[in-house]
Amino acid sequence: MRRLLLIIALFMAATAAAADNAVLASRASRAFDNREWASAFAIYTLISTDTPDAVEPYSRSIVAVWMQPDTAQIGPRVEAALSHGIVLDSLLRQIETEAFALGDAEIYKGILHTTAEALPFLRRPVDKALLSFYTTRADGPNMVKYARIMLAGRPDDIAAMQALAKGYLLAGDTSAAKTAYSDLLVASPRDYDALVALATITMPADPEAAHALIRRALAIKPSPYLEGLLKDSKKK
Fold this sequence. Notes:
Helices cover 80% and strands 0% of the residues. By secondary structure, the chain is mainly alpha-helical.
């Protein structure tokens, strides 16, 4: 009988706790949706204490901090998430999702910069996230900046080499783009996009070199467009 009463008591306590958590989550969501940032930060911080392995309370509390004048708590909130086993990439993706839902990608960019300044040991993964952010936005100069930062630490980073070449092209520096694509093809000879881009850049000054690049690209992936381009350029 005592055991049954104990089980009933534990069940009732768990049910009450779950109900309290649901009420708290509802209050937090309402505050966030209404842009009551101080309240949202306080409640989501409390929720993250009770459920330390959940990503959303951390991401939303971090966004709520950014939306206030004092952003000093961003670093500690990121550290708290990491200390409870939250993967940085998962946290950043959720912050990005929240920022886009609010209609302002600059929130995400600002949080990334602030995190890198507050937590220097996260500089490289945050720089990688910034490179991805600027690549998504086709921001050539910043793609070049952050690709070069990534390559300074790891010269064989293919993704950074791709971003560097494309960044130069978007920034209008064709000469630098040509060099970057050439370097990329040394490291990754079967990079289809690099072959096509370099062929396009090379075509006006050196059609034969461009033709060789197009043939390499066609060997990787047939393309009526490239086949037509090769035929048309040979007729000229």
